[in-house]
Structure formats: structure tokens, C-alpha cells
Amino acid sequence: MTQAITLRLITRQAGGGEIVRTRRIDTGEALIGRAPGCDIHLPDLAVDMEHALLRALGQGRVSIESLTGEPFQVGGKPALRVELDAANAQVVSFGAYELVFSLGAEDDVVVTVLRREDDYHPTPSLFSLKASVFGRRRMAWTLGLAILALCLILPIAGAAWFRNSHIHPDQQWSTGPLSKAHAFLDKDCQACHQKAFVAVRDTACLSCHQSGRDPAIQAASDARVTGLGSPFLPLLMSDHAAHAKLIRAMPPPPTITGKVAGVFQMALDHPRDRCASCHREHTTAPPDPNVPKTADVVRPGKPALIVVTDCAGCHSRLKMRLPSTGLIDTPDWNRHPDFRPLVTVGFDGPQPRLQRISVTQHPLEANGLTFSHRVHMSATGGVARQGEVLGAAKGYGAALTCQSCHRPDGGGFKPIEMERDCGACHSLAFAGGPGNLQTLRHHDMRNILGVLRGSLTPANGPHVDPAVLRRAMAPGGLCVDCHTIRPSGGPFGAEISPVHLADRVLPWGDFNHGVAAHAGVGAGAAACADCHKAAASDRTQDFLIEGVATCRACHGKTEHETPAFAGAQCSECHSFHQPGEAPRTGQDRLFTALGLPAGEKPRGLPTLGPQAP
Amino acid sequence: MAAARGKTQRRRTATHESFLRHGRFLFLRAALILCASAITAYILQKPLPRPGGGTALGYVLGTVGALLIVWLALLGIRKRAISAGHYSLKAWVSAHVYLGLSLIVVATLHTGFQFGWNVHTLAYGLMLLVIVSGAVGVWAYATLPRTLSDNRGETTRKQMLAQIASLDEQILEAAQPLSRANADIVRLSLEETDLGGGFWRRLLARYGDCANGRALSQIGAALRGASDREAVALAKVEDLMQRKAEALALARRQMHITAMLEAWLFVHVPATFALLAALTAHIVSVFLYW
């Protein structure tokens, strides 16, 4: 017997609720399709006109077979023919329609036909862009948090992780590249930025640049810097003066903006006397080389060495701000005070007594010698004749020149040594006895005294009557030719005065005797006699240094005034960081570097660069 | 009564005055004074070694700039708060626009024209992105609402959607007698038509590959080979799809204009968040590695 099919067509209404229409098909066959005449009419364009045939097979079983070769869906899979047990509540889909099978109460198969409702109902919000991209807020938070994580948290928290890595997240914080000298520290921010939220302090700079350290400590420091990759050794810096004095000596900022800047520096804990106050890193020098003034080489690059206050800034009214200073105010080169050399004015026991006396006061020196430059430098006379007699083989051959006794050594001279510089003429030989010509060892005072006193044994020296010593120190005696004899409470009633020949008489300025313009080489150059009136000096006491006016003959002059025109900057003679020396130029350093043995690194950057303006 | 009329009058005036002209350009003048002051100070300063964020003026401009950025960003919160005054939000927007534009001068002078591949320039770049996107927003708000209104005429957006849905139903109805091949053409229009599309499609109004359009182009050929009965249905469907294309075009123009009106905010708001993060990193890093 053919099993009947009961169709239940469920139509959902727009306002909710359903309409259910039921129809019974007793033939046991139902045509499924889009055509209006089909038993199961599915008005869906995905369904063919007469798409499939449903047959009740009895025992609650049904078959569905495609009539057009187009598939339908059974449990989500395409099929052309299927047999089902209606009791299993199977679902067969045609387009948007679902056929749900079940067993009816009257031994019939119930087919419930439902239309799958589309959940998508466009609303006016579809017109907004929000409908097409993910939310602005999510995008905003994602971006913000990502930047915070990558640019702030990673460099702080990840510092330890990346220590030995090629990537250093904190490099993104660098405001600019470091100078060539410091480029090797590019990835080690904390070499200089040692304490968080504290501006770079001098201790960071001095860990490499401190001068006057124990040689072993200095060597270790140099080795550390070399190990870090520095192409040369750090320049060593001395304090210009005590920091407390420097601060008091510095003038207040002259302009309103300077004062405002000062307030900011105070408020932001940026002391003005730090190394970093003048030496700026992570920046490029401004295009105009005249702004700012720099004390050293200016390159259109980095770092910029800025002058917070120049020499004159402190030294023009220094006495007013720092009453205890012994320095005379020097507002500019034209008002540079005259030289005040350190003059040996006498002796306290064996120690020389030194005093700064201005050359305008015509200081007299008491160096313990008796010497006439005029006699020695005369082109005629006994000394000149002696020079001729000694001949060129012994380094003479004519009247004496300055260099006969003052032997150049770099920018200065070798200290005078009696035996080398005077001994060729002033022989210390004497007759120790018949046919026994002896030479006193001038540099060995104990020997001389011993010999002259006759206290030395015959094997070591001649036995001489003590009266010889008295005669030597008496007027016209051997010693008196050159030495000052002073009264003494000793057994001879007189003694030879100590001798002090200063290597430098102007210890706070640098004068390089080696440069051409100071050595008489070239047009307008100064010769020795221009600064030292030795040829006219008869007395040892004459202090043979001319005043600052002699320097002004070239320094501060233009090329129209003298062919040997030279600069008038303080740095011509005075270095801030090496008091008593002139700053070394890039050229100086290059020449020093070239003269070093292979493999040895120069101290400081050996580059050529334009001179400071 | 008179008082009530006065108030009404005032409201109307307020409504007609744009945020750009608010208070006789009060905030434009404020912004110009700020810029002029910054430029004057920049010219007068003697920065060592060169202008930048680390000079006294650099710190001042940096502080002003950072405070401005934070305050400008607060508009996002302020606009959500309903307050009593009639003009307050408009005043805020006016100030937001002009003071925001003045940031270009303040922040650029703060940098001293020193830029590099670092977090500091990132913050500056993001700030410019925010300002430029904001300027696009000002232009959009000043011009597009009228275009939007002209486009839709008397039709509401809801009506546009309803019209398309109704046409779809009619097409489905009309297509019932069609064979599978022709029905598939119709299904293309019914099932594949994407009204809006993604961000760029809306912004650039690129709908050349619209499924309804493709269906329309195929239906002509189908008509030529169709039987009489099919041809009648196809002709009806073609007519309906033509009407649907017009309805789609109207709705899509509306979406395109709306997209242009809204797109800048999709840059402005996320870039603002990114800027606030980069600004924090800039300030913290500068003082951490001082």
C-alpha cells in the first residue's frame, strides 16, 4: 500500500507568526519544483521548474530523485538521489527552502516546507563607513598602544634583553647622530646618560677625559675606550679653575632671553658649568660657521661646540665677581695686561723665590749667575774670536748665535747645561799637579766641592790646598766669572749662590718658538732679537722679555698691515682645558698622529679642519 | 512671549553661523596671535648651538604644543558631554580647528627644523597627519552636507533601502517562469549585488563590477534567444533591474558622499591616539636620557 504524504507549508509573516497550510497527497508521489503546478512549489530561482520527485517507499521511508540533473542538498551535501527514513527528521534543501521529514500520526510521511529566512536586513547605518571598516576606536587603541609599546616600553623594559644584540631599541630616542669622535658610543646611550631623568653630568665625560690620573688608571681607561671601538684615545682635560670659582666668575646672561634660559636651566636642573653645557652632541653645527663662535674646529656637522660664555665674558669684570682672584681683567686683546712673568728675585735657602712682576716695572732677575749676553753675542771681540777658533766642527766657527747656547727643542729649548753649552770655552780643567790636568765635573757639586776642598782621596781627586777654593770664589777667581758669590757663615766666609734658570717665565700662556713666524722665517716674522733685547744686555739681572706690545705687531693685525698678520683670539696662546698651553689644532694632532709608531693611536681626533674664526 | 521669541531668534542665529566664523573669528585671531608670538620669539632668540627643542624657547614651545595637543584631543570627550550653553560645543570646535592649525607653527618651531628617523620626528609626523586629516574634515563638513542633501532629494535612506528590497521582490516574482540559465542571470542580481562594499570602494565610488550591472548586460543576449513566454518575463525583469540600477546608484552616491564625510575621522581619530602615544614616548625619552 502506498504511504500518503502530508505536506505542511509554513510561511513566516513579516510581523511575526506563521501561517501553516496542510495538504495530503495520497498517490505517494510529489513533484518538487518552481513551476506553479508542482506539488511542492518552491518559488526560488535556484530551483528548477520540475526539479525532483519525492516518493513514499513505505515503512516511513522516502526517496528523492533529481529530474534535471541539478543537485539538492542533504545534510549540507549535494546529492542527486537519496533515500531517507522519515523518522530520522532529515532535512533536504532546495535553494532557500528546507524540507523536513517526519512520521505523521496516520502512518503518513509529513513533509514540512520552510523558507530559510535571511538574517540580513540592511538598515540606514549601512550608509556609514563604520559599516565597512572595523571600528575607529579599536583602530585608535591598537595604534596608540602599539606605539607606546614599541617606542617607550620596549626601550625601557627591553634594555637588558638587547644588551648584547645588534638592535638597541633606545636608539630610536636619539635626537641625531653623534660626532665622529663619539660615534663608537652610538649604541651605548647609557655611557653618557647614566642616570634616568638627570642631565648628563661631568662624571660621565671625565670617565674617559680626566687628566692627571695615575698612569696605570689612565692606561686602563684608554684600553677600555679602545676596546669599545674608539678610533683614537680621548683628549685629557684639566679643570680651568675650581667649579665654585667658575660659577662665580661667569657673568649673568646679558639678554632677556638669556635670563629666561637661565631660569629654565635652573628649573630643569641643567647646571651651566657642565661639560655638556658647551659640548653639544646629537646635533649638527649650524650652516653659518660664525654662529655660534666656537673654540675649536667648526665643521658643518657634529658635534657643535658652543661657547656659553667666551673668555672675555668671565675675564672682563672678574675682579668684581671674584675679588680673591690675582688675575687682571682682560676684556679684549687690545686691553690685555702686560706680561707679568715669574721672576726669580732671590733664594730662600736653595729654593728660588719667584714673583710675578709686570714687565712694565722692568723686573730684575737674581738667578745666581753672572752673565753678559752682549759680550757673548758681539760679532767682534774675544768671544767671537773664540768661536772662530773652536771651528765649525765643534758647532761654532763664527761669532755666537742664540742657538749656540739655547738649543731648540720642539716649541721651546733644552735647559742650559753648563758643560754642553758653555764648556767649550769655559773650561773647568785645572792643573791638579805637574802634568796632571784635571776637569771639574760641573754638574756634580759634591765632587767639585770635594775636589776643591781637597777632601777627596788622592785616588779620586787631586789634593789641593783649601786656599784654592777661597781663591776660586774670590774676585777674579774661577767661579766668580759666572757665579754669584754670596757671604756665608761657613769656613770660607763666602759661598756660591744657588742657580735657577726658569724653563718658562710665562706659565699661563703658550708661546711656540718653533712656528715659522716666531722663528724669523718668512716675511714679517719675528726673530729672536725682536722679543729678546739680548745684544744690548750687559747684566744677568736684565729680564729679556718684551711686553705684549711686541706681540701686537702681528697678532690682531690684518694682512694689509703686516705680512705676518695673526689672530687675536685668546686661544692663540691660552687653552681652556689645558691651562698654560695653546689649544692644539687639528693639524697639530694630525702631525702628531703621523709621527706615531704603527698601531699606536693618537690622543684626540687627528683631522684637518678649518681654523676657528 | 517677547522673551521667548528673542531666544528663538538667538538660536536661529547660532544655527546659521558656522563654527569657522564663530565669535567673529575669535579663535582664528587667537591662533594668529599665538603663531605671531612664536615666530617673533623664534627670530629674536639666540639659540646655541642652533634652534631646537632643547633651548629655552624650545621648552616653552614644546610645553605649549603638548598642552594644546592634549586639550585638542579632549574634544573627543567634550563632544559627548551635553552642556548647558547654546554655543559651547561650537566654540570648542572653532577653537579646535584654529588652535589645531596653529600647532603647525608652534611644533615646527619647537623642532628647530631638525628631523631624523627617531621617535621625536615620528610624533611630529603623526601630528601633521592629524592636522591634515582634520583639515580635510573641515573641508568635508563645510561642503559635503549640501551635496549629500541635494543627492537624496526627498528620499530618506530608509526609503532607498526599501525601494531596492521591493525591486528585488518584484524581480524574483517576475523571474519565476524563467529557465535555469536565465534564472541564474537574475540570481546574479538578487544574490550577488553588494550595495556598499568596503572602505575604498565607497570612498572611490568604484562599482564597475556591480552584479546587477553584469546581470543587465547578460540579459540582452538572453532575450534574443528566448521563447516568447520567457521573453515577456525577461523583458519585465530587465525593466526592473534597470530601475534597481538607478536605485543602487542613488544609494551608492549617498554612501560615497557619506564616506568622504566620514573617512577623515578614520585617520584623524586613530592618528590622534598614535600621536598621544608618540608624544608620551617623546617627552619621557627626552627627560629619561637627558
Main β-sheet of chain A: number of strands, strand sense, barrel status? 7 strands, mixed
How many DSSP H or I helices of chain A? 17
Number of H/I helices of chain B: 11
Largest protein interface? A-B, 69 and 69 residues
The amount of helix of chain A comes to 10-25%
Number of strands of chain A: 22
Low-confidence stretches of chain A: 291-298, 607-613
CA-atom Rg of chain B in angstroms: 28 Å
The major sheet of chain B is characterized as: none
Main structural class of chain B? mainly alpha
SSE order of chain B? HHHHHHHHHHH
Strand content of chain B: under 5%
Distance between the termini of chain B: 66 Å
State the total count of DSSP E strands of chain B.
0
Strand order across the largest sheet of chain A: 2-1-12-11-10-7-8
Question: What report would you give on this structure?
Answer:
The complex is a heterodimer of chains A (613) and B (290). Chain A contains 17 helices and 22 strands. Chain A has 613 residues and is an alpha+beta fold. A 7-stranded mixed β-sheet of chain A has the order 2-1-12-11-10-7-8, with no helix packed on it. In chain A, strands 4-3-5-6-9 form a 5-stranded mixed β-sheet, with no helix packed on it. In chain B, 79% of the residues lie in helices and 0% in strands. Chain B has 11 helices and no strands. Chains A and B meet through helix 1, helix 5 and strand 14 of A and helix 3, helix 6, helix 7, helix 8 and helix 9 of B.
Provide a brief overview of the structure.
The complex is a heterodimer of chains A (613) and B (290). Chain A is built from 17 helices and 22 strands.
Give me the secondary-structure topology.
The complex is a heterodimer of chains A (about 625) and B (about 290).
Chain A: E1 5-12, E2 18-25, E3 29-33, E4 40-41, E5 52-58, E6 61-66, E7 72-74, E8 77-79, E9 81-85, E10 91-94, E11 97-103, E12 109-115, H1 136-157, H2 202-209, H3 215-228, H4 243-249, H5 256-267, H6 275-278, E13 279-280, E14 304-305, H7 311-315, H8 318-321, E15 342-348, E16 351-356, H9 373-377, H10 382-390, H11 402-405, E17 408-409, E18 412-413, H12 418-422, E19 429-433, E20 436-439, H13 445-453, H14 467-473, E21 485-487, E22 494-496, H15 528-531, H16 548-552, H17 586-594
Chain B: H1 2-16, H2 22-44, H3 56-73, H4 75-78, H5 88-111, H6 119-152, H7 157-174, H8 180-192, H9 199-204, H10 211-224, H11 228-288
Helix pairs in contact in B: 2-5, 3-5, 5-6, 6-11, 7-11, 8-10, 10-11
